[in-house]
Amino acid sequence: MAGREDGNRQQETQAGTGPAWAAELLEHLRPAGRDVRRVVAWLSGTVGATVALQDAAGNLVAGNRLPLDEDLVADITAGRIASAAWESRERHLRLVRVEHPSHACVLAVSRQSPFDRRASDIVTHTAQVIELLLTVSESNAAGHRLRRATADLRLAILQLLMVEDTIAARRVAAGLWPGLLDAETASVYVVESDPAARDRVAEECLDSTREDALVVRCPAMDGHVIVVGPREATGDALRSLVRRHSGLFLGGSVRQSLARTATAYGQAVSALAVAHFRPDKTAVYAERTHPERLMDPVALRGWTSRVLRPLDTLPHHTRAELLATSRLGLEFTAVNAAKVLGVSRNTVRARMERVETLLGTDFTDLTARAVVHLALNTQIGLPDIPRADGTEDPGLRLADLLSGPAVRTWAQDLLGRLDADSRNPRRTLRTWIAAGGNAERAAQALGVHAQTVREHVRSAEPVLERQLLAAGTDLYEVVLAHLAVGDLDLPEFRRPA
Q1: pLDDT at 371
Q2: Which string of DSSP letters, residue by residue, matches 100-157?
Q3: Does the predicted TM-score (pTM) go above 0.90?
Q4: Which of 19, 45, 158, 458 lies in the 20 to 30 Å Cα band around 262?
Q5: CA angle 467, 214, 465 (to 5 degrees)
Q6: CB atoms within 10 A of CB 147
């Protein structure tokens, strides 16, 4: 009797027996240990067996493959029987049905020794644990797919707004977020974080705005989250988020019509650059005097109509596609514009080349880019001015628009800020623009080092309060200022501009 008690006591203290194996099995339900393959490996070691977990199609989910009777497996996975046992002199086999949210599996355990009570209990409880883990995994996978689909839908809505298709954007948004885009205007914000933290930041943006804003992980910049906020409270919510976390920066646009989402996005990116130098890490695009606002709006609309008229022969959808792509392509690189639009960079380049051909100009010329940028922004930025009907003054040229007293005064004041610098950055900037923004070619023309050219251009940015090394509205305004004062020649168009 004493021997039997000692033997029992020894059994109870062995790893994997009695309460010990149950505790070990429960450890696999902890968040850090939820892995079906680890559970199967644990079962194999605990009962001294070869273990296989396979689905109804015979695919091995975990463990080591075993020779199993296909008809028997089919009966178990179909639910006709819940378990089965098979024995021979060399092998003892247990088959147990394992429920799965989408399809049943079979847990097969094969060992040389017969299955005693302990081994049978371990197999039964392990099957239950595997069921739980498969259910959790399926639920997590479904949740991930739902979050991914929702994120893709938000991006699709943003891309529709970027190409000015507000009707389609509202239609898509109405299914999941009724009323989200009912407003006529919105502000666009860009939240910048470390790329590794962006998913968390995007979720916090959703929580902070209570899903009253369109929150999108930027497809072009890994650390950026784009927020289109029709509600006034969106800006306050995002500023509060930035205050709570170090390493976040926020740039915002002024309110724009939904059709000008691309313009607002450019403003937010420009403000984001300023936010890096602000104590509160936030900045809103500063509305300033833009040259087009100093021109006669009716004359400007008429000139714009004539410049873009070659595109009027295209089908409406094609024309809108080319115009929207060109707006983004002139603001950002082809690669980033492509990511925002959800097309390839070759598609962006092909569309812009087609616009170049139709307008009879060359986008490698910064003056041509600036002039077309002016026309494209005027087309969408002056919606209240009656469109030209073909009776506008045919003699009106860009030179006439730029020679107005208000425009010339603005241009002289802007470029005059550079005159106090003895290094003459104004000459460097003019030469750099004439060279298409190429520092090496500008350096050859000036007889200096390319790095000197870059330093002069970079030093002009805070003086002019505009980004120059990144193509976009800031640079094009400075180009127009040079054209207005006569420091650069007007670009050539096949149709006179």
Answers
A1: 95
A2: -SSS-EEEEEEESS---HHHHHHHHHHHHHHHHHHHHHHHHHHHHHHHHHHHHHHHHH
A3: no
A4: 458
A5: 15
A6: 12
